[in-house]
């Protein structure tokens, strides 16, 4: 049976270039120009194709190659608006753009909830006693403190309800979509994703550390809340305090189970670090050296991986990874990614 995440992908031929119109661009390393929101990109042609699609990266638009609507674009174009495009029917433009903003968020929820369902299904079927994988089920935490299948089954029931509700929202008419309270829906989704992460990461080898256990010397954490999307997770943002950027070479070695949500790891030296089961939700990993790092069961939801070096990294079992994160990073043929991903073309070019 094909993994359902294969279906959550953009089909640009069935969309009306909504990602080239609705978002705003700011001239930066990701975009060569400024572009106001809800304004067509100057590279957009009349047939809704990009005039420089095969040259986006060399022309200064790597952000375009990284963007992934997860299928929200064609859902709005072909289902919500029944194939009527905003150029031929200009009265649909603003309602369509509004719908895309909401739909893109709903499809992101779908992506994460689909993964959470797959993860909890696997755990629910696991027979565990004193250690994961041993015969004989234990209800609740076993002697090792690892939650048993019963916890996964209970969580899975909640995930199914919220996942199904999310799918129903994606089939709503444009008026209903424009009135949808995304914050309220996010408040239902986020705790379930966090609980899934905790359940899965508890299966990783080694003790799960406290928030201060993996900070660089002299570091003191501080609280900062982050929202959905790039910052899907909410949690502690660890900074290096007075130690400064020179201490970033200390973020390496055995970091199994490290609690680092929202951590400032810009340019950090994490080469060959053991990050199995680490919580990196919403972390700033821009330009970090993660070559050869082991990120099995590490929670990467909302982590910023722009220009992070993932060559040879082990990401096959990383949690809540997205195509956008991979496309924004540096990788190669030795980077292990989950089976539902195709490595970005620029990794192999």
Automatic annotation (TrEMBL):
<feature type="compositionally biased region" description="Gly residues">
    <location>
        <begin position="209"/>
        <end position="221"/>
    </location>
</feature>
<feature type="region of interest" description="Disordered">
    <location>
        <begin position="128"/>
        <end position="150"/>
    </location>
</feature>
<dbReference type="Pfam" id="PF00805">
    <property type="entry name" value="Pentapeptide"/>
</dbReference>
<protein>
    <submittedName>
        <fullName>Pentapeptide repeat-containing protein</fullName>
    </submittedName>
</protein>
<feature type="compositionally biased region" description="Basic and acidic residues">
    <location>
        <begin position="245"/>
        <end position="255"/>
    </location>
</feature>
<dbReference type="InterPro" id="IPR051082">
    <property type="entry name" value="Pentapeptide-BTB/POZ_domain"/>
</dbReference>
<dbReference type="InterPro" id="IPR001646">
    <property type="entry name" value="5peptide_repeat"/>
</dbReference>
<feature type="region of interest" description="Disordered">
    <location>
        <begin position="194"/>
        <end position="255"/>
    </location>
</feature>
């Amino acid at each position: 049976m094909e993994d359902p995440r294969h279906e959550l992908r953009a089909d640009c031929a069935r969309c009306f270039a909504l990602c080239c119109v609705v978002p705003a661009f700011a001239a930066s390393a990701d975009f060569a120009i400024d572009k106001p929101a809800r304004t067509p990109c100057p590279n957009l042609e009349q047939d809704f194709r990009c005039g420089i699609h095969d040259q986006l990266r060399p022309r200064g638009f790597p952000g375009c190659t990284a963007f992934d609507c997860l299928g929200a674009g064609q859902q709005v174009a072909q289902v919500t608006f029944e194939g009527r495009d905003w150029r031929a029917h200009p009265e649909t433009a603003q309602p369509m753009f509004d719908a895309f903003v909401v739909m893109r968020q709903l499809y992101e929820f779908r992506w994460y909830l689909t993964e959470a369902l797959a993860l909890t299904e696997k755990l629910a079927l696991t027979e565990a006693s004193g250690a994961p994988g041993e015969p004989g089920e234990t209800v609740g935490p076993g002697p090792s403190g690892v939650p048993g299948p019963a916890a996964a089954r209970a969580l899975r029931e909640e995930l199914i309800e919220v996942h199904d509700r999310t799918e129903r929202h994606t089939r709503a008419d444009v008026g209903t979509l424009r009135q949808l309270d995304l914050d309220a829906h996010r408040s239902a989704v986020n705790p379930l994703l966090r609980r899934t992460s905790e359940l899965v990461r508890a299966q990783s080898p080694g003790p799960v550390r406290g928030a201060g256990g993996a900070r660089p010397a002299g570091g003191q954490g501080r609280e900062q809340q982050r929202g959905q999307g790039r910052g899907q997770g909410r949690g502690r943002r660890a900074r290096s305090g007075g130690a400064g950027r020179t201490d970033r070479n200390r973020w390496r070695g055995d970091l199994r189970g490290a609690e680092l949500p929202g951590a400032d790891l810009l340019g950090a030296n994490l080469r060959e670090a053991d990050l199995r089961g680490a919580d990196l939700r919403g972390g700033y990993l821009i330009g970090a050296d993660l070559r050869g790092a082991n990120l099995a069961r590490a929670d990467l939801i909302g982590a910023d991986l722009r220009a992070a070096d993932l060559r040879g990294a082990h990401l096959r079992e990383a949690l809540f990874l997205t195509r956008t994160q991979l496309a924004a990073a540096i990788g190669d043929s030795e980077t292990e990614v989950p089976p539902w991903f195709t490595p970005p073309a620029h990794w192999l070019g």
